[in-house]
């Protein structure tokens, strides 16, 4: 399934679009305010955003500019009524990838989404996330609630391995094998313990990074 965020304050329209797109193999999460969307994006990046121009707490161009300042590749489609087209075209030039005028045919919206995804690819695959922790794999950057975190090479590899196995308990032996031994760095259990402590300190002791006593560690969403 392809993750999609839909920002729309009209619950009737939102439910119709959601039902249709979910039949087309999309996983649609609806947000009724820009503020809710910002909070969600700090924890998880979808493949695409559908953004209604007029929202209770502002216009869509403000959120679009904020998205561009953080994830410049994230595809955004504006949805708007005809009377706002001039403003939307201006917002479109300032960062959105496409716009669709209401009322629209669901088939047309679907085709525009597919066309945009063909051009951009699923950029969500670039990011790994758990609660407020996010890894940008292309840029090798780590963020904790939007704060960039500086990690050593082994701290980064450890976090990456845990993120790639999110929801699974991984043993200490497996971590040592996959993070250290595979690179020819044969270390003991104490090295893992020390590296894990430093990683937790830098990430502000995240609840999503759990110790499974006498076994290993597990990362899982708690929000």
Describe this protein's structure.
The chain is of the alpha/beta class and 223 residues long. It folds into two domains: 2-121, Rossmann fold (3-Layer(aba) Sandwich), CATH 3.40.50.2300; 127-219, Winged helix-like DNA-binding domain superfamily/Winged helix DNA-binding domain (Arc Repressor Mutant, subunit A). Helix content is 41%, strand content 26%. The protein is built from eight helices and 14 strands. Strands 2-1-3-6-7 form a five-stranded parallel sheet, sandwiched between helices. The longest helix has 15 residues, at 106-120. The protein starts with a strand and ends with a strand. The mean pLDDT is 90.
State the fourth-level CATH superfamily of the largest domain. Answer: Response regulator
Shape: elongated
| Gyration radius over CA | 20 Å
Total domains, how many? 2
Percent in strands: 25-35%
Question: Helix tally?
Answer: 8
CATH architecture of the largest domain: 3-Layer(aba) Sandwich
State the end-to-end CA separation.
21 Å
Break the fold down into its secondary structure elements and pairings.
Blueprint lengths: L1 E6 L3 H13 L2 E6 L2 H8 L6 E5 L1 E2 L2 E2 H11 L5 E6 L3 H9 L4 E5 L3 H15 L6 E4 L2 E4 L4 E4 L2 E3 L3 H12 L4 E3 H9 L8 H14 L6 E4 L3 E4 L4
Parallel strand pairs: 1-2, 1-3, 3-6, 6-7
Antiparallel strand pairs: 4-5, 8-9, 9-10, 10-11, 12-14, 13-14
Helix pairs in contact: 6-7, 6-8
Short description:
With 223 residues, the chain is of the alpha/beta class.
Features:
alpha/beta; Arc Repressor Mutant, subunit A; four-stranded antiparallel β-sheet; 2 domains; elongated; 223 residues; Rossmann fold
